[in-house]
Amino acid sequence: MNTNEDSPFKNVIVNSVQEMVDALRNADWNDPTGAIRLRTDLTMDDIGDVAFFINTRVFLQALAEDDGTAATATGNLNRAFVAKIFDRLVLSERYREMTRRVCRVINEQDCWNLHLVRIVSGIAGLVELRKKRFQLTASGRKLLSVDQAATLYRTLFITYFTKFDWYYDFPFRKAVWIQPTMAATLWRMDFILKNWCNILGLARKVLLPRVYENLREAMTHETDTEEWIFCSIALEPLLKFGLIEKSKGEDSVGSEKDNAVRITPLWKRFIAFAVEPDLSNN
């Protein structure tokens, strides 16, 4: 697995799978010459239908239009602002209709997709709460332009995967080692999910052995399945960013035995590694 002097990956020298895994666990996701490399030249054609990306742009654009918006006493977006952008958000019709049916007035946390967009945008430094108002930062205003779409997508991805705490989105079981080792998991997925792969048993194939053990330890109820926990923690973020697709048509990945996933063309455009995985003997 040595890289040679003519390779674009010559800055990362690895001699074994274990060395590559170690490099990925310590990788700087912003480093274009590191163990994991995230492209910066995506186009709107590549990412224009990615829900999390679109919804973030809707959120940022609305803040730009209104020159910010007032926060509630609990630090959330106010109801008027939520009502203004709710129909602009990319949501499944089922989710939209259910939210309207259940909530007479829609608050920020009633639309969890918007809530996550607001939280991640804040962590990414695109939005700040200043004088009890949510305002675009200079970075947020800059990345809102169409010619910065690739940088915005990349910023959101890195923030979501390395800075945002996934336990906040899925607080039901604590498989705490999945997120910190996600670069290594992505590396294994890059090989295993080139073709459709049933989600039943997928966790064992793509997680590092000790991480898989941690997942099993998180199964504290007799009805728990590893697929439910793994899909909710590790696969849903990839679905949000348009990097995997599922064989069935539900809004989420789900954990049904006959559901399968594979990487998308966007994954192939966006994610690369210093050494391509070959796990055919694993």
Question: Could you explain how this protein is built, in words?
Answer:
The chain is mainly alpha-helical. It has two domains: 17-38 and 166-273, no CATH class; 46-162, Orthogonal Bundle (Arc Repressor Mutant, subunit A). It is built from 14 helices and eight strands. The chain has helices spanning 17-25, 44-47, 51-66, 79-86, 93-102, 112-123, 138-143, 149-162, 166-169, 182-192, 202-206, 209-217, 226-240, 265-270; strands at 36-38, 69-70, 127-130, 133-136, 197-198, 244-246, 260-263, 271-273. The strands form three sheets. It has a three-stranded antiparallel beta sheet with strand order 2-4-3. A three-stranded antiparallel beta sheet has the order 5-7-6. It has a two-stranded antiparallel ribbon with strand order 1-8.
Q: What count of structural domains?
A: 2
Low-confidence stretches: 1-15
**What structural category arises from helix and sheet content?**
mainly alpha
How is the main sheet built? Answer: 3 strands, antiparallel
Helix content: 40-55%
> What global shape is seen?
globular
Strand order of the largest sheet: 2-4-3
Gyration radius, in Å: 20 Å
Order of helices and strands: HEHHEHHHEEHHHHEHHHEEHE
Question: What's the helix count?
Answer: 14
- Total strands: 8
User: What share of the residues does DSSP label as strand, in percent?
Assistant: 5-15%
Rounded mean pLDDT is: 89
What gap, in angstroms, lies between the N and C termini?
A: 16 Å
